[in-house]
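testing teh design pipeline on a random one, pls ignore if ur not involved
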């Protein structure tokens, strides 16, 4: 079977769905291809900082989520080796923690049902040159379907097929990994709406309320593989933490909803691979983790993916509007190039800030300990987090559907 689409997005994660919503807002239909049978919410919850909420606002989705989740204005970091407790104040409106599934569904329900095609794994694709900068993409799916499209956006996550095709720098393993999940207290957990972190030289753990009954918790350690059965992951975390982290944290882990547990090695793309890498070729580009996988130390991979979506939507939208509601392949290459120019440095900066923040929090070298104890929370963390959190990716262009009869346009 061979199909034709204006825009194909590979991956129905945060980046893919948000990009499809951004394009829909500017009048462009996109087909999202997802290899799974439904929306995947691995990791169960995530934190979103003010930059992410501005992007969600631009996408017209924030109003559905804000009433469901209370922001955390601050957190406390306890260094269990020294006993020191630091208060960390978050900028502007605080940070909200939400269920991933709720975020994905809030994005997906903005789209027409036929614009997400599940069980559709991309297995190969070719770029078909059209002369000049213009190109078309021929996407081949596992089920034998071929889809030709004028624009192809790889939102296919950390091990992106499209990023490999573009020749982007290989991922680097940070040497750390994280177990995360939900804890459920049917009678209420009684914690305030604040982050509580605990750390020593090698491990870091923490939790934050999602609501009165559920907490999102994590345990991050150096280099150890903790995947496997959920019970085993929970047991391993408890074993490693019993001696050093406080009983309130252990109690949270004991209340884990085992079906929510997951383990992830923490990978990132080196910032120079983003600054100097080929983030697009003709009408093919990447967004989200496919472009800028990062360690989760500032909780911003999802936020940066939402920013990508708005910026990409803006550039494609402007081209679409200027061309009288047409996707003109030659002009799309320029729109995508402008998107890459706008995102490259921001993405590299967020990856770097996240890495430095994690390295300082979990390194056990003497100079890292020195910097952590003397400067990290006093000066450095506030500065890094402001760089990442206090950022506005801008708005989408306004489009008047009345003035533009999209259905009658043919190219
Ligand atoms: C431990 C941990 C904690 C984190 N915490 C936070 C946090 O608190 N806040 C935050 O903002 N970010 C956080 N992140 C980062 C965040 O999870 C990611 O940045 C975000 O999920 C990226 O979204 P994405 O859509 O780019 O990729 P993904 O969510 O990975 O989605 C990619 C999608 O593409 C699909 N796909 C892949 N290959 C193909 C193919 N060949 N064909 C079709 N479909 C395909 C996949 O099935 C998947 O659905 C964390 C990450 C980790 C590892």
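output:
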């Amino acid at each position: 079977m061979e199909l034709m689409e204006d825009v194909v997005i590979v991956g129905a994660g945060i980046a893919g769905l948000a990009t499809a919503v951004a394009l829909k807002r500017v009048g462009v239909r996109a087909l999202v291809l997802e290899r799974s049978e439904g929306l995947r919410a691995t990791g169960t919850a995530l934190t979103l900082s003010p930059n992410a909420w501005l992007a969600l606002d631009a996408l017209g989705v924030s109003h559905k989520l804000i009433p469901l989740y209370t922001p955390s204005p601050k957190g406390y970091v306890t260094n269990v080796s020294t006993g020191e407790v630091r208060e960390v104040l978050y900028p502007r409106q605080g940070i909200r923690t939400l269920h991933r599934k709720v975020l994905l569904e809030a994005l997906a329900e903005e789209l027409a049902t036929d614009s997400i095609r599940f069980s559709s794994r991309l297995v190969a694709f070719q770029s078909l040159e059209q002369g000049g900068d213009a190109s078309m993409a021929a996407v081949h799916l596992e089920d034998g379907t071929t889809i030709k499209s004028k624009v192809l956006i790889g939102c296919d996550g950390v091990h992106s097929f499209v990023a490999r095709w573009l020749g982007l720098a290989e991922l680097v393993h940070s040497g750390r990994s994280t177990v995360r999940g939900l804890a459920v207290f049917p009678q209420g957990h009684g914690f305030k709406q604040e982050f509580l972190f605990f750390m020593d030289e090698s491990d870091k753990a923490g939790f934050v309320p999602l609501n009165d009954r559920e907490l999102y918790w994590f345990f991050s350690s150096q280099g150890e593989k903790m995947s496997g059965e959920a019970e085993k992951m929970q047991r391993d975390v408890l074993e490693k933490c019993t001696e050093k982290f406080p009983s309130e944290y252990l109690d949270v882990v004991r209340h884990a909803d085992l079906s929510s547990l997951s383990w992830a090695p923490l990978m990132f793309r080196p910032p120079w691979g983003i600054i100097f890498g080929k983030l697009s070729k003709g009408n093919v580009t990447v967004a989200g983790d496919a472009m800028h996988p990062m360690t989760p130390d500032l909780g911003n991979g999802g936020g940066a993916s939402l920013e990508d979506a708005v910026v990409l939507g803006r550039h494609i939208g402007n081209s679409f509007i200027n061309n009288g509601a047409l996707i003109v392949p030659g002009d799309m290459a320029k729109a995508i190039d402008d998107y890459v120019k706008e995102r490259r440095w921001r993405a590299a900066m967020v990856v770097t800030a996240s890495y430095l923040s994690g390295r300082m929090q979990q390194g056990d070298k003497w100079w890292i300990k020195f910097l952590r104890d003397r400067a990290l929370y006093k000066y450095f963390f506030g500065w890094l987090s402001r760089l990442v959190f206090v950022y506005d990716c801008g708005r989408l262009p306004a489009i008047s559907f009345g003035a533009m009869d999209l259905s009658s346009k043919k190219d």
